[in-house]
């Protein structure tokens, strides 16, 4: 089980081998954390994403990190579920995002990974439920990743993630 740290910050400046972006199926970039990562990594990120797209909800795919600063070497793109009330498998799809991202990190031999709170922005997943799913999935997933940093964009998300680590 990797060590899990919860921080408030900018995922594009994390000191990790790989960062995860909450992508859309096209992997061309979008809003929120995905837009921030695409701006920081430069236009080659969208070109590389387009070359491997589409990415189905719950899956994950990797590209180089391009203009992101070392040690970040990879961007892992994962597509979260759009919240439709919870009766359409959203929780399992979200858990799959974390499991698949860790599996891709293992394939890349990444030992440290930073995650955002996947699907809690425009996709509308309730942040309290998403935090519990994120932490419980990371804890229960077999991986060679040694350190996971959960990077919250705001204080309320940071508090939810931190609370989920103490259950």
Automatic annotation (TrEMBL):
Superkingdom per UniProt: Bacteria
What Gene3D superfamilies does this protein map onto? Answer: Leucine Aminopeptidase, subunit E, domain 1 (3.40.220.10)
Recorded hits in InterPro entries, A to Z, give:
Macro_dom, Macro_dom-like
Q: What SMART domains does its record include?
A: A1pp
Query: Macro domain spans which residues?
Result: 1-167
* Name of this chain's protein: O-acetyl-ADP-ribose deacetylase (Regulator of RNase III)
């Amino acid at each position: 089980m990797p060590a899990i740290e919860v921080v408030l910050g900018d995922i594009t400046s994390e000191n990790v081998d790989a960062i995860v972006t909450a992508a859309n199926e096209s992997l061309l970039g979008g809003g929120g954390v995905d837009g921030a990562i695409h701006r920081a990594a430069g236009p080659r990120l969208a070109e590389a994403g387009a070359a491997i797209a589409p990415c189905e909800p719950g899956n994950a795919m990797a590209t180089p990190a391009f203009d992101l600063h070392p040690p970040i070497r990879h961007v892992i793109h994962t597509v979260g579920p759009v919240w439709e009330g919870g009766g359409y498998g959203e929780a399992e799809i979200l858990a799959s995002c974390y499991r698949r991202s860790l599996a891709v990190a293992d394939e890349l031999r990444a030992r440290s990974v930073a995650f955002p709170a996947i699907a809690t922005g425009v996709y509308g997943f309730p942040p309290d439920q998403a935090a519990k799913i994120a932490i419980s999935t990371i804890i229960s997933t077999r991986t060679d990743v040694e350190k996971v940093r959960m990077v919250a964009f705001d204080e309320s998300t940071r508090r939810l993630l931190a609370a989920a680590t103490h259950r």
